[in-house]
Design goal:
Blueprint (H helix, E strand, L loop, with lengths): L4 E7 L3 E2 L12 H11 L5 E5 L4 E5 L1 H9 L4 E7 L3 H14 L5 H14 L5 H8 L3 H9 L5 H8 L5 H6 L5 H13 L4 H18 L3 H44 L5 H26 L1 H4 L2 H5 L10 E3 L6 E3 L3 H10 L2
Parallel strand pairs: 2-4, 3-5
Antiparallel strand pairs: 1-5, 3-4, 6-7
Length: about 325
């Protein structure tokens, strides 16, 4: 988009910031001011004339940096724009230069489409040079709890990962977010965990009162399964690496056939252990007792007790992993 205008130096006191600023934090002003002091203002700011003053369309940080240097005038590109046109120009400037974080983009897109009603998502996408899917997914971020949006702004959670948690209720999302921060997951892993937990919740058909509790239990179980699976994956990787190193040693033992035969026996043991862990990982979700993963999320068993699958005897929860490993999947 191109608008005719004039270049002119204007007194900084006659320029005000716009009512809608996309960026919540105009940081780095000292560095920008130092650059302007050394090299000058390389690009004039864009302003539009109002009644008795001018309003910034693009260049809020440059204006603040000029004021920080206590300069009286600043180079401007004066363009006559409507509110909608000014909003679009400012939005394009920030999106193209990637100066906004995902939440700031989401708020700006949401205001354009919903608050001001200036156009649909397809029209906005065309103006800013992005796909409609990009705009839609950004606006969906506004449906997340406030705390999760803050985590996105702090770059502890990515937008794509956060969006995968949207099917969950607010409490489950915040609980799951803590888990994701401590155990970085891929988008596909999160989608799988959420999908399985939602499916279990739907199968149980909980009432509205029980809905949140059921969701939380499902998420807790899936998180436990993920941690177990992650440990198994690491174990398998370490054992395969050991196998490679072991083969290097074997290749250097040519003359002593007795030693080589002995090492070959140990190699078979390592190979068998790798197969065991591969089968263990494959059968993890099928064979694992429900009580083992459910006792941590169950309020009735908060006292660290767990019932055996085969009877009513109560055992300590700290021993549950040993019980499961020795009497469950290993057999």
């Amino acid at each position: 988009m191109s608008y005719p205008g004039v270049l002119q130096e204007i007194n900084t006191t006659k320029i005000r910031h716009p009512t809608h600023q996309f960026r919540m934090n105009l940081d780095g002003l000292n560095e920008l001011a130092a650059s302007i002091k050394e090299h000058g203002l390389l690009q004039p700011i864009v302003v539009r004339p109002m009644q008795h003053e001018y309003e910034v369309v693009a260049g809020n940080r440059r204006l603040d940096a000029i004021r920080l240097l206590r300069l009286r005038k600043i180079s401007t590109h004066i363009i006559d724009l409507t509110d909608k046109e000014a909003y679009e120009v400012a939005l394009v400037e920030n999106v193209q230069h990637k100066t906004m974080n995902p939440i700031e983009e989401a708020v700006a897109f949401g205001q354009y489409v919903e608050s001001y009603g200036w156009g649909g998502m397809s029209e906005l996408a065309k103006h800013i040079g992005r796909s409609q899917e990009f705009v839609t997914r950004r606006i969906q971020l506004l449906r997340l709890p406030e705390r999760i949006r803050e985590e996105i702004m702090c770059q502890r959670i990515t937008p794509s990962v956060a969006l995968e948690m949207l099917p969950l209720d607010k409490g489950a999302i915040e609980e799951f977010a803590d888990f994701v921060i401590k155990n970085p997951l891929t988008r596909s892993e999160i989608r799988h965990i959420v999908k399985v937990s939602k499916a279990k919740s739907d199968e149980n058909g909980p009432t509205n009162y029980e809905d949140k509790s059921s969701n939380s239990k499902g998420i807790a179980c899936e998180k436990e399964l993920y941690l177990l699976d992650k440990a198994l994956r690491k174990t398998i990787a370490v054992m395969k690496s050991t196998m490679v190193n072991f083969d290097d040693i074997l290749n250097n033992v040519n003359e002593n056939w007795i030693l080589k035969e002995l090492l070959m026996q140990y190699r078979l043991i390592i190979h068998g252990d790798i197969d065991t862990f591969l089968k263990l990982r494959k059968r993890l979700r099928v064979k694992i007792p429900k009580d083992y993963l459910g006792f941590l999320a169950d309020d009735t068993l908060a006292g660290k007790q767990l019932y055996k699958p085969s009877g009513d005897k109560v055992i300590d929860a700290d021993a549950s992993i040993h019980l499961w490993a020795t009497k469950g999947m290993w057999q």
